[in-house]
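residues and backbone:
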Amino acid sequence: MSSTKATVDTTDVKPSAVPGVSDTAGTTEDTLTPATAVAASGAFIEPEIVERIDVEHPAVDNNPRKGQPKIANQIDFNDPHLDTQAAVEKILGDQAKN
C-alpha cells in the first residue's frame, strides 16, 4: 500500500533529558477549527485531524468491524451504569421483544 498522506516530521523533536517528563521545547500549539461532527464512538473530531489520518497505512485498521455479524455491531456497551453482562442481557432482551 502506498501512503498518500505525509508522515509527521519528527526530526527536530528531541526527547527530554528527564525520564518521564515531556519536553515541549520547540513545539507550537496546533491550530484546529472546532469539531463539527461526532464520530460513531461519540468523540468530537476536528476536521484537520480527520484529514491527517492515513487510513491506508498498514498500522491503521480502517475496517475494524470486518467479518463481524450485524447483530454484534448493534450491541452498545457504552452505558456506564451497566456492566458488560447486564448490557448484553438488556439489549438481547430488547431485541427478543421486537
